[in-house]
Amino acid sequence: MRKLFLVLLIFTSFYSIAQYSTTFNDTLRLFGMGGDGFDNVLLDSNIYYVLGYIYDGNNSTPHITKINESGVVLNKRKYIDTNYNFAIYPYNSMVLKDSILLFCGQKWDISGTLGFITAVNKHTLDTLWSKTYSHPDTTIANQPGSGQFSDLTAIKSTPDGGYILTGNYNKDCITGNLRSFLMKIDSVGNVEWRRTYSDVTGLFDIELADDGGYYFLNPYGNNINKLAKTDSIGIIQWQKLINSGMTGWSTTSGLKRTNNNSIIGIRTFMYNNDISYPLMGANVFKIDLISKQILWDKTYLLFNTVECISLHQSVGVQTLPDGSIIVSGTAKNYGHDAVILKLNSNGDSLWCKSYDFTPDPWDCQLNDLIITDDGGFMGVGFFSDQGGSGWTAWMFKTDENGVIGFETNEGRNNKAEVKSYPNPARDNTTIELSEYLTNTAALKVYNSLGQLVLQRPLNKGEKAIKLDLKGFEAGVYFFEVVEEDGVLGSGKFVRE
Length: 496
Fold this sequence. Notes:
Blueprint: E1 2-9, E2 13-20, E3 25-28, E4 35-44, E5 47-55, E6 60-68, E7 73-78, E8 85-87, E9 94-97, E10 100-109, E11 112-121, E12 127-133, H1 138-141, E13 148-157, E14 163-170, E15 178-185, E16 191-197, E17 207-208, E18 214-219, E19 225-230, E20 236-241, E21 253-257, E22 262-270, E23 280-288, E24 294-302, E25 305-306, E26 315-319, E27 325-332, E28 336-343, E29 349-355, E30 363-371, E31 377-384, E32 391-398, E33 418-421, E34 428-433, E35 441-446, E36 452-458, E37 464-468, E38 475-483, E39 486-495
Parallel strand pairs: 11-13
Antiparallel strand pairs: 1-2, 1-24, 3-32, 4-5, 5-6, 6-7, 8-10, 9-10, 10-11, 11-12, 13-14, 14-15, 15-16, 17-18, 18-19, 19-20, 21-22, 22-23, 23-24, 25-27, 26-27, 27-28, 28-29, 30-31, 31-32, 33-34, 34-37, 35-36, 35-38, 38-39
């Protein structure tokens, strides 16, 4: 057990002491490389889907890892495109709808940076489709050496089966001339509309309105932040100014709808008035969406500074069923620590705790935090030591009081080789393991839409499983051989 001391300011300062153990607090070197981190996490049917990216010294590549609630790695997949480098923003870059996972971010080469979306099958993690989106000022961006920059920062599913995204770009391809946009796509990534804004300079989150419109935080210049409400095609209907007297600028933000027609917002602000070395705090507010009135607006200083002034640092906000609020991010303490702040529904502090991986931390960055089914929290990010040997993916699990609770196990990271033959096949195919099963298992087969079409128990000692394909439609099928502690192996075959 260790004691961590912190200063938390809610207009007045006081000290609190946080204690926690170091179980289920682990790093995962998923692909054996020196640059490996987590950016987003989702929980679905007792499975964590964790999105991140790796850097192999030449290219940065996205990856997704499936982890069960005991910390066992079930499956992992990296998405390689040697022509581009990729980056993912923290917190809101991944969404799950039915059996499809979508993630967004930015990709770049010598011609510039553009936003992208990739859709994968949640069962097998195979790619379903991937698309790149043009710069909003396409004519200028198409000129050689234009220096275009356009990215996608957050994605949410919409009731019509599509998705709404936030993004930023350099207007007229001028460096530093940052503007923002909303983009609506259908279920397979086709653009339905895109709305650019001349007075919005950084969008990182979005929430859906009951009438089909959207809410987002509108930062523009120093001391100007507004909650904006749009209609169903992104036209701003009204805006509410937030804390106009605050020092400095907002660099990142988050939103969360509550169950009683209100919205919680969080943004960062500079509180030392020194652009060369900015110290950042967190501003949290609650707005009634019917009256459009600010219910409360408070600021918090977590340790020395909230670290959220670059691409891979951000803040997030969640709400609990009792109306309390969870704020999370990365704070600078002795090194960098994950930090969780719990507030009541009126914005008063209940507790604040920080987390790191080693007794002598250098950089433990929190990139996403979710509320788990047991009322606790799962945080993901990366850890880097002082030796500069690179960074590794990092995750930790706490109970409802922010106390880390149970042991992790990386599980089976090296799955057995599995092959199928003949492939393509017409009447039947055989799925063969490289060794005999030492335990009972199950074979699961999914179609290209991610729907389970066959599940068969497998006995200890089996090695080759023959499948009759007479009832299968022509197309691509994915399969998994699953043991109690995770996926033993996976593959795909084509039915002619």
